[in-house]
Amino acid sequence: MAGMMNWEQLLSDARWGSSRQSTASPQKHRSNYDRDYGRILFSSAFRRLQDKTQVFPLGRNDYVRTRLTHSLEVAHIGSSLGMLAGEWLTKKGALPAHILPSDLATIVSTACLAHDIGNPPFGHSGEDAIETALKRHGLHLPFEGNAQGFRILTHTGDPMEGNGLKLTAAVLGAFMKYPCTLSYSAAVKQRSITADNKIECKKFGIGEQEREAASFVADHLGLIPRSAPDEKYLCWCRHPLAYLMEAADDICYRIADIEDGYFSGLLDFGHTRDLFSPFLTESQLCYVRDLEEKEEKDSCIHYMRALAIGRSIQAAVDSFTSHEEELLQGSMEQSLIDSSELAAPLNGLYQYAIKNVYQAREVIEVEAMGYKVLGELIDFFMEWVDHPSSGQARKVAIMLQGTKLPRDDEGRNARLTHMLDYISGMTDSFALETYRKLTGIL
Question: Phi-psi bin for 224: left (phi > 0), alpha (psi -120 to 50), beta?
Fold first, then answer.
């Protein structure tokens, strides 16, 4: 069918940025996708997620999730989704002979592992805090964690060659939740252009310096273009496996945030049990009641969370198989979760969390701290961006030693980009420590 993607091309293991492209070959015990998983897992950008807030502030207790534990859990769910989808595609005869279901599992789990790698410190408000601080300096520049993640994977993740972690096109394609540039996404929102599919341009996932990398990925995978390659507004359809990556994240945070809310003392047992009940069978609910009578409420929550995840995984895969043709045509306009049989209870979890978890005092406090800390840091570093020869700017340059500074002839935009790379890559603790040193708070 014209305008339809095919699985063989969508699973391309061509590597972006590798100077040894022609000699790279998979090892007997490791596919090229397995190597990608290791490259992300051992990267410094991934390790820094251990000290970045997911929802609750770090240090409140040892139970709640950080960005790192969240990413590992999403990767595990993604592996299950990829395996089940791969088994279905294999049985259908849709995959080339050399591709195993486990390869799809690895591609999806690897994309999941990296899905938050570009997020700044201080939780969900970090992006807004950066944008707010930039506006004070006359810069109406959106900061998007998805685009920053793609930048790390394809540009800044390898200081030796500047081509990122040199990942396969399949993994990068599965990672690209929003395969469009800021200019395209903004034009759609302003209605100056009409989008073929708004799900892929709700946000932007490609920075200006990563246009070449995105084009490499799209060309090798055969992603359907939404705009001509020479146009200002670059956009492609999503890779079908990006929907599985998105589903893994949706399942994880919607369910896990409720669990974290309970163990943080924000939600009582009764409300948490009722929220998870739609995912359980009657016999499973009987077992829950038995545990409750024995005062084993924490075990109840663990049990229900596990069952909710299992049911949601199957629902997402069922949605994937039902909509495979739309996915290959680039015409799927809903997420797999929103088009699944569990859309209502999963949305119920999310809506309840918005009102009763995300607005909790301790969550708001860490977000407010993020605004203060990131705002002060950007104010300080902007002196170097705007006036690189000033005394304060020279001090900033010393602080940035250890990073590859832009050349003097590269100009202000290069310094601005470098500053945003540096600040968004900070952990919560390092950002707070730097802020305290600069303000004299010890």
Answer: beta
